[in-house]
UniProtKB/TrEMBL annotation:
This is Putative ABC transport system permease protein. One of its GO terms (cellular component) is plasma membrane. Residues 259-373 form the ABC3 transporter permease C-terminal domain. The chain crosses the membrane at residues 257-279, 300-329, 341-365. Residues 23-227 form the MacB-like periplasmic core domain. It is a multi-pass membrane protein. Keywords: Cell membrane, Membrane, Transmembrane, Transmembrane helix, Transport. Pfam families: FtsX, MacB_PCD. It is found in: Cell membrane.
């Protein structure tokens, strides 16, 4: 009977291909949009996650995410260092100067000024050069995406000069920084030099990075710093999530992706469900004939479920393969790197599509179980 069910399924090639296409298209669209949405949201916290030398970020109490901050007083660094449980605390400057090449090409950058003595927060994943070169004057490290933005189509090369607020600096390293929400070059420099890139202001301390002593959790240290200083203190992951939540609440990205995901869900429910239901109904004569020769309802149930699982398996396989191919191609594009097909998305969509196909088969099954063989022969 399993062979008969399979032959019934593929006998009508047009309907069979239509079923496979509906499942595959819905699978591809859902996996694609969910993974891209999650990837973009994850990028919003990458500037925080990229700094691995800190357990706790200390900032102004009104700061909501990384790109929006109010400068602290220099004395706040001393206050944080005085909190019990702090292993070390260093300053971090963040600015957005304009970098200009010798050919006149320019781009707004994210400049991170690191503590001169420790260089805490320096990029650890280097493609060319070394982050330790920052100890020398007028040296910077720039990320690969930023380098290609300023020098499009040119090979990676150290020693090139950039102009930042009339300050000439030399590229001493090229890092593999995680992509951010906005595609801006990421420049690392010493704190004392990064201040000059932006221009002098009365207060310039953007964040204080703190590390907890052994045996003390970052969450406990953050609470201690908040109580002792009145400043806002967040662990690295808490602050990264703050960035994600800010963009979710204050941009139209969730709505745009939500509409696409809703359409894909609707296509999965309506098109796939209706197509499979019509396929079962149009084969009522065959099912009636099988009942007339003594095939039981339980056996018919197994045949229809087998058809449903085959449609789901082939359609989901094609859809997942298309999604994997898409992300494999875009992974090599500098602007969309690190946006991958999430296994959570692939698994969740697989379960969803299986439920849709099974529900559609259940609707058709009801007609089959109530079918009287005599009705078929009368028609």
């Amino acid at each position: 009977m399993n062979f008969v069910a399979f032959r019934m399924l593929i006998g009508d090639r047009a309907k069979y291909i239509g079923l496979i296409f509906a499942v595959a298209f819905s699978t591809f669209l859902l996996q694609n949009q969910i993974s891209i949405f999650a990837g973009i949201m994850k990028n919003t916290g990458h500037r925080v996650i990229d700094i691995t030398d800190a357990d706790v970020w200390v900032m102004d109490p009104q700061t909501r995410y990384f790109d929006e901050n109010k400068a602290l007083k220099d004395t706040d660094l001393t206050r944080v260092r005085g909190v019990p449980g702090v292993d070390y605390a260093v300053r971090l400057f963040k600015g957005n100067p304009v970098a200009r090449t010798s050919t006149g090409r320019f781009a707004t950058c994210v400049a991170l000024g690191l503590d001169d003595a420790t260089l805490a927060g320096a990029p650890r994943h280097m493609i060319l050069g070394s982050w330790e070169a920052l100890r020398h004057p007028h040296q910077i490290v720039i990320d690969k995406a930023g380098y290609l933005m300023l020098y499009p189509g040119e090979p990676l090369e150290l020693g090139r000069e950039l102009e930042l607020n009339d300050q000439r600096v030399e590229i001493a390293g090229i890092s593999d920084a995680l992509p951010g929400f906005v595609s801006l070059p990421i420049i690392h420099a010493r704190y004392s030099e990064a201040l000059n890139f932006q221009g002098q202001q009365r207060l310039q301390l953007s964040f204080v990075l703190a590390r907890a002593q052994a045996g003390l959790s970052p969450e406990e240290l953050a609470l201690r710093i908040q109580e002792a200083t009145g400043l806002k203190a967040r662990t690295t992951w808490q602050f990264a999530w703050d960035c994600v939540v800010y963009y979710l609440q204050n941009t139209g990205i969730p709505v745009n992706f939500g509409i696409t995901i809703a359409v894909a869900t609707l296509v999965g429910l309506v098109v796939t469900g209706q197509t499979f239901y019509l396929f079962t109904v149009e084969n009522l004569k065959q099912f009636g004939a099988l009942k007339a020769i003594g095939v039981t309802n339980l056996r018919l149930l197994g045949m229809i479920l087998l058809q449903a699982v085959v449609v789901w398996f082939v359609g989901y396989g094609f859809g997942s393969a298309l999604a994997a191919t898409f992300f494999n191609i875009t992974l090599k594009v500098i602007a969309t790197r690190h946006i991958t097909l999430l296994w959570q998305s692939a698994a969740g969509v697989g379960v969803f599509m299986l439920i849709v196909v099974l529900l559609a088969s259940a609707a058709g099954l009801r007609r089959v179980l109530k079918l009287q063989p005599a009705e078929v022969f009368r028609s």
